[in-house]
Amino acid sequence: MAAQDVLGQTARLASSSALLQVLFRVITFGLNAFTLRYLSRELIGVVNVRLTLLYSTVVFLAREAFRRACLSGSAKRNWTKTINLLWLTVPLGVFWSLILGLVWLHLLEVPDTSVVPHYRAGVVAFGLSAIIELLGEPFWVLAQAHLFVRLKVIAESLSVVSKCILTVTLVILYPQWGLYIFSLAQLLYVSVLVMCYVIYFVVFLGSPEATKKSFPVARVKALLPNFVEDETFVNWKEARLTWSFFKQSFLKQILTEGERYVMTFLNVLNFGDQGVYDIVNNLGSLVARFIFLPIEESFYVFFAKVLERGKTVKDQKQDDVAMAANVLELLLKLVLLIGLTITVFGYAYSQLALDIYGGSMLSSGTGPDLLRCYSLYVLFLAVNGVTECFTFALMCKEEVDRYNFVMLALSFIFLCISYFLTHLYGSVGFILANCFNMGIRIAHSIHYIYDYFKESPHRPLTGLLPSPVLLLVYVISAVITAFSEVLFCCDKGWMARLIHISTGALCFAATLVTMFCTETKLIHFVRSQ
Fold this sequence. Notes:
Elements: H1 3-35, H2 41-70, H3 79-87, H4 89-106, H5 119-134, H6 137-145, H7 149-173, H8 179-204, H9 208-212, H10 236-256, H11 258-266, H12 271-284, H13 286-306, H14 318-358, H15 360-363, H16 367-394, H17 397-425, H18 428-453, H19 468-488, H20 494-518, H21 520-528
């Protein structure tokens, strides 16, 4: 497949994924606002922090390394061996579910049953849901490698909508069920997700469309583990790369979910405070999840397909290098501007957003400061996602192994800083520690990108330098909206709030106009791709 075709399909995958994430976040946003009025903060804290951490840890440790290894390189490969390798995620998921399930049940603090009933059932259900989701891993990787955009959109949309409908129904009818509600909803979510992929490939394989596309898998039976005589069960090159990524993914999970591990294992916050932190965290991460994550996932595939892992820039096709450098530069500029916009306007509108969303429970206390800090953290997330996406797509096995040592040291430092800052600043300390963590990771990735392109005429890191005029408009907007918040928000009535919102809208419009006038190359890229 030509690099230009890969770019077009990748861009469509990223944009579709972004739209899909918008739908997910809007639904989750509304669901949380709804459940806040029916359920306790403690119950929400246990579900969104404790149990979700169990599920995400099992799934991440079982599949992340396999995904990265099996999506590297061309889609033309021995798919029988790749599928065999992917099925190893299931027994690995069972292992992690059992081990971590015992830890969650017997070593961690158990919530008060009068406030959070059915905790044990919740642990079992969330561990089981992780295993069920891993059953669909070969189907997901095959679809992702061949850029099946529509399948991903439909599958994840149906699963999220099903989960939300069941949750809302049970919360209204049986609020006393407690964790049973979220357990059943989680099991429904993963079941619908896996069934969508399975049903699609059952129908697709053997069809005229699959034959026309010369799809590498001809029968549904080929998607199951297969032993081939006189051949190894898996591709050992992929297996070794998977092991390297596994060591890395273990550390990355600690860094990604570090604050939840500190909350869960060190009990620095009670379940109620964990619930407030998680609500604010979800609200603050809306843009990060529905824009930055799809870009990172989709363009990881693009860079891995266009450039060959482990080769220097001189050994690559120069046309592909030029395209990759141009795309990287524009992606950096895109996410930087989105991050700056969130940081500037998020500071002045955090308290208003929380007051509208959850009332005084969120807008009083540390809630507004949490969201303001998270607005800054979004900027770090934006840049880190793209720089790591490129770095991980190009690193050879030895470089991945060396980076693992860096991640190990960073993990230890991050956990220590999280614990220290949390004792000083409460839950805000978690976000400050995350900013430090992301800053170090960005510095490492920028160093790698600089070294990679230094022997070529391309300088993609210039994407991190926005127009001076645009920066000036950002500064002016920040000052105006901050004064507006002091004067009009948030206890002076709805008329004052509307004036505050209108002020922000005018500043935002001025920022967009300036962006369109000064960043013409980026605007053309977004429109064309």
